[in-house]
Each structure stands twice: as C-alpha cells, then as structure tokens.
C-alpha cells in the first residue's frame, strides 16, 4: 500500500477533480485497511485502463452489460495492491487482448466514481464508490478482441472522439473520457 500512497503523493493532478479525488484516495488508503476489498461495501479500490493504439489515434472500449454503455476497461482490486497489474489483467479478461503494455507505470488519472445499486450475478449490490486509479496502456488494434459475456457484449476500437461519443453516460463523457483524451494529446 505504501507504494500506491507514494505514487498518489507524487501524482500531478490535471484538474480540480483529480486533486480532490487524489486527496480522498490518500485519506482512505491511510485510514482504512479494507479499502482493497469489495467486502467494504461503501467504497473500494478499482483500476481502469485507457487502452490506446501505438499511434494514439484509437481507444479500446467495451459495451458494459450493467451500465448499458460503451466504457473503458477495468475492475476491482479484490485484495491486489498492484493496481497496474489489476488494470492489465482486466484488459486481458474483458477484451481478449493478450499483448498489452503500460505506456507508463505511473497512474494516468484518478477518479472517485459513484456506482448505483444494481444486480450482479443474481445478487443486489448497494450503491457505493469506486476509488479508481487509471493507467494508460497500449495494445495493437489488429489483435483479435473477444467479449467477456458475463460483463460485456461487445469490444471495439474507436477513434478518440468517437470513443467519447459512444458512451451513453454524460458524466463519463464530459468529465472522464474527454479528460483522458486531452491528457493523451498533451503528452
């Protein structure tokens, strides 16, 4: 956990949202040992990936079954404290892409994400927060993609702006995906 705290202390926020969420993540990481487990039903750590093509013109997205929206890839830490490893694992599981590599080992973005109550595998999950660390990853758009049927119904590459437009979640489009593209283009 100390490695992640150090990474978040060094993280340079892009905007006020990232700074406020960085402070929240640091506070909870320092005070709650259950933060890496879904057993904490109020909030827990997750890792997401903004997966881009080597030429930085495309983004890999999945059509998420619960949210009924195109979205980034990622998932729960489930006890794992290496969130970069979680992001890479989730990309492989959710897209079938085998060759994926970090553009950087440092976090690319930070978010505190609200999750509405929903059914998952026949069981109700209460509304909660995902304390999310996003990593910038790279993969080859020519590699075959495969849906993970219990989580998504499609996986596809989109041009940067089209990836934003494909999301049916306004807050993600305007506050997260636009930001990720802006940060990518500023690199």
TrEMBL record:
According to the record, the signal peptide region is none
Question: Which residues are in the Nudix hydrolase domain?
Answer: 42-180
Q: Which InterPro entries match?
A: NUDIX_hydrolase-like_dom_sf, NUDIX_hydrolase_dom
Task: Decide whether keyword Transmembrane helix is in the record.
Answer: no
Question: Keywords for this entry?
Answer: Hydrolase
Q: Which GO terms describe its molecular function?
A: hydrolase activity
The UniProt similarity line reads: Belongs to the Nudix hydrolase family.
- Recorded protein name is NUDIX hydrolase
Species of origin reads: Oscillibacter hominis
What is this organism's lineage?
Answer: Bacteria, Bacillati, Bacillota, Clostridia, Eubacteriales
